[in-house]
Amino acid sequence: MNTYKSAGVDKEEGYKTVDKIKKAVGETHVPNVLNNLGSFGAFYEIGAYKKPVLVSGTDGVGTKLKIALDTKQYKTIGIDCFAMCANDIICHGAQPLFFLDYLACGKLEADVAAEIVLGMVNACKDNQCALIGGETAEMPGMYKQGDYDVAGFCVGIVEKDQIIDGSKIKNGDIIIALPSSGFHSNGFSLIRKIFTDIHEDFEGKPLYETLLTPTKLYYQSIHTLMRDLPLHGIAHITGGGLYENVPRIIPQGLCANIHTSTIKIPSIMQELESRGHIEREEMFGTFNMGVGMVVVLDPSHVQKALELLPEAYVIGEIKEGNEKIILHSSEAS
């Protein structure tokens, strides 16, 4: 007799996954969440806002996931998935409200799925965000056994008159960098091409451990600045590096002048550049190069910003120009 299980889909494993994550997911819920896991849709009540604007973002983990699957190290991938979504929406000054995940696989293993989702849970807690739902799709024939794909969707909120979109950036503003935790979740097709042995030693531990360092979460840092300072622009440095992401917030007629000699490039990126014989311009056009987030603000607020975030540092300034971004190899004059 044919059954769904005989076709490769085990509903019981799905139920086990829910059992393993249900309590932890519930810990991310705030009073605004009006129902629990299991409904057809998730309810989130918007609180007291004058002119609320919803800000949303969706993303995945890319081929970084392949390293996690090959090493059976799943704890950080959920963090990556959440961070890639949430870090985008906080660029507009938004407070993350809720997150939903999508997990697809060839053969569902409850322990693996739970480990991935629990990473999302921990990331949500760090961002004061509720994980209110998701979908687990077991698709034999589409994915091989042991293969997983992960994506997420985050919604935040901001008052209309407090949206940060780069429109206030002006000539003379200063650009500060918030360090990344590594490659984050971009450029891994090239990384895997160069680093063919992810089990080799790098700085005293297996290389894959460094490569799987989770994407840094910037909610706490950005909102620490926003509480005390007016920010003119914020850019999340993801795929395409500084070259592609900084211009997204620069108004016409202005140019971000960035001094690459001031940037603190992680040793793992220097190793990739050297071993792969990659041109420096290609590195800056593909990876974050140690800069996970860029903040633009008035010169009078720079010292306070650096006091609030000791890990941050100045990397450039805004000047008049039509190129939107120029990377200089010499120090600022």
Automatic annotation (TrEMBL):
It holds the Pfam family AIRS_C. Its EC number is 6.3.3.1. One of its GO terms (biological process) is adenine biosynthetic process. Pathway: Purine metabolism; IMP biosynthesis via de novo pathway; 5-amino-1-(5-phospho-D-ribosyl)imidazole from N(2)-formyl-N(1)-(5-phospho-D-ribosyl)glycinamide: step 2/2. It is found in: Cytoplasm. One of its GO terms (molecular function) is phosphoribosylamine-glycine ligase activity. Keywords: ATP-binding, Cytoplasm, Ligase, Nucleotide-binding, Purine biosynthesis. It catalyses: 2-formamido-N(1)-(5-O-phospho-beta-D-ribosyl)acetamidine + ATP = 5-amino-1-(5-phospho-beta-D-ribosyl)imidazole + ADP + phosphate + H(+). SUPFAM superfamilies: PurM C-terminal domain-like, PurM N-terminal domain-like. Residues 171-324 form the PurM-like C-terminal domain. Residues 53-158 form the PurM-like N-terminal domain. One of its GO terms (cellular component) is cytosol. It is an enzyme of class 6 (ligase). Its main location: cytoplasm. Belongs to the AIR synthase family. HAMAP family: AIRS (MF_00741). This is Phosphoribosylformylglycinamidine cyclo-ligase. It comes from Elizabethkingia argenteiflava. The gene is purM.
